[in-house]
Amino acid sequence: MRSGCLQGCSTGTSSAGATVLVQPCDTHRRPTGPALVVGPLHEPADVAECCAWLRAGAPAPAPSHLVAGVLSG
C-alpha cells in the first residue's frame, strides 16, 4: 500500500528517507495491536535494521530510534 503523508505534511517541505506504517496482525491479517510509524529511514543501515526487525516477526519492542509514533484509533 502507498499513501500520502499521514502526519500533516505541507507541500514544500522535504524529508529525506521513507516512512513506513506497520501494524501487527494475526495469521488471518486481523490487527492485534496499534500501527507504528517507522521512520524516516535516512540511511541504508536504517532500512536494513527495519527489514531485519520485520523479517524477525516485528517482535516488541520495536527499535526505538526508528519508531516515530503509534497510531491509535
Report the β-strand fraction as a percent range: 15-25%
The major β-sheet equals: 3 strands, antiparallel
What is the CA-based Rg, rounded? 13 Å
Give the ordered list of helices and strands: EEHE
Helix count, per DSSP? 1
What proportion of the residues is helical, as a percent range?
A: 10-25%
Task: Extract low-pLDDT stretches.
Answer: none
Q: How many strand units?
A: 3
Structural class: alpha+beta
Query: How does the overall form come out from the CA principal axes?
Result: globular
Describe what this molecule looks like in 3D:
The chain is of the alpha+beta class and 73 residues long. Helix content is 16%, strand content 23%. The chain contains one helix and three strands; from the N terminus they run E-E-H-E. The protein has a three-stranded antiparallel β-sheet, covered by helices on one side. The chain is globular, with a radius of gyration of 13 Å. The mean pLDDT is 81.
